[in-house]
Amino acid sequence: VAAAGGPLAASPRYDSAFADEFFATKRAAVLRRQAAIAAPLTAFVGRVVLDYQLGRAQTNRRKRAREFLAIISGLGPAFIKAGQALASRPDLLPTEYLEELQKLQDRVEPFGNEEAMALVEAELGRSIEDVFESVGVEPVAAASIGQVYKATLKGSGKAVAVKIQRPKCEEVVAMDIYILRNLSGVFSRMLGVFNKDINLQSIVEEFGKLIYEEIDYLAEAKNAIRFKELYGKTPQVVVPDVYLEYSTRRLIVMEWIDGVRLTSKQPSEKNSQLVQTVVQCSLRQILSNGFFHADPHGGNLLATSDGQLCYLDFGMMSEVTPEQRYGIIEAVVHLVNQDYRSLASLYSRLGFLPPGFNTEPIVIALEDALPDVLSASVEEFNFKSVIDKLGAIFFMFPFSLPPYYTAILRCLGVLEGVAIQVDPKFKIINNAYPFVASQLLSESAPELENALQSLLFSNGKPRWSRLENLLEGASDTSDDFDLGAAAEGLLDFVLSPRGAEIRYTLADSLVNEIDLILSDSAAFYTAQALQSATAPFGVRLPFAAPAASLLARLGTSPGAASAGSRRGGGGDSAPDGRSPRGIDHAERLAKMLRNSRGVNPEVGARLARRVAADPEGMRIVVEIAVGLAERATARALRLVFGLPMRTEARRGRS
Prior knowledge:
Number of strands: 15
Low-confidence stretches: 1-10, 556-579, 649-654
Mean pLDDT: 78
Number of helices: 27
Structural class: alpha+beta
Strand content: 5-15%
Helix content: 55-70%
Largest sheet: 5 strands, antiparallel
């Protein structure tokens, strides 16, 4: 921290005990600032408490949220950052407050250029002219913590962005956090009217650690370097270089990249493509590597003239462990399955709820709140609607969301807001699901195996349509998805002791699916041949009509075969209402195999050897062969004796 007395530490780090000792010697300054903070906040909390006592809390909630926004906006950088952090804390504030705080703008009037250049020289330890050929006469951006100038490096002539911290920024932030921590006990008692056990002191300390990281520009420089190493080679993504030799705790110099805000008013097909890029890149950051940009708002994302996406501002980053990433994926699966009991148990396991808390009321609340959202049409279904519903539950019960989880909520919420500005029909959940699919199918963690089992199997029976959609989405969306590796992982799971329940029904399910594909394929291609089997002058061959009748008895008419499948199942139906779904499934499978990495004869041979070497695998193969032979024999006998065909292979796919 740097305070009025000079540098207190080599790098700014939050230390409440040290702050107590340091500010004990500055009582007059602390009391003046404390009065400026406490007066509006105490009056505000008093009005909220009075609303609850008079039974008008719900009616006045939006009004109070706007008042809170106005107070926060006028109290300085620490409070602006605190407000932005609170905007993603549905466990602490109701929806109206979250929506108002999301409007908080971190834009303030710039401080003087002379003072800024003096600070730059002080940080560099030399004159401006020794480092830069030129520096812009006015800042290109100004925020609560620092402001940015465009400059040109001496010698190389490279354009750079020079961000210098506001004077006494660390001192102001340090004092405000110290005062907030001292006032937190009083406000916690006043907020007891909400019937929530809110430990404001721990929240202030958590926020203190976050903002101290953000005001350390050397930490930001290291974040940018790490971010570039991880994601700089992603197609269509560019990350500026950092000039560490010119960067300090209060000064950072980075490569200047020309571009316009991704959310600029000018319509651009490239911008729509870049929205897909930023969403997929962000999902990779969160769910694959675990190190992610936690503040991807429009000002931190540029569209370059050559159609690339540029990330800026690496002060607000977050990180998740593999176990935390698996928990996020599990939560998505439970939401898709509408398995609210498992979702509530997951929240308890992740430590979001007090130990031993009865989750049954949460299950009931989830069942009441979420079905309407999850069953909504694509036009109505978005991340915000899900978070609003979950947020109300987080606020209702004693949830305590960890920093990484709130950072993810903020990241995805901001991303969807940016995306909708570019493409109003964009839905981040629809674009996220395929990436979640690729992670489910690619990673071998026990938590993900359990999630995959609950997603793809119901009472031990495969949900083939979900498996198809999962594979297709992962293949189409993720360049990193290896279908061969996913197939090996699925096979290992099925043949393992954990897959015992599934193996008992797998053979019957596969017989149904393979029989469906084979019978529909035979009918389709035979029908195609019959329809083209005409003699000269358009006279149909004598066997065409009897053969068509025969195919109709087999369960698929030529009309059905020719009309439905080539349109992906959405074409004309046969007279009996059926279409050759087997053809559609076969074509989708073939497309996935063509478009996916890791699909080759070597992988196929390896899978075959794995099955042949496992007794359970061979049992399944034998059962499938016997089942298909029985189907073929039964179909032939029914055909010979003129009996109606059974339709077991044409049952709906779950």
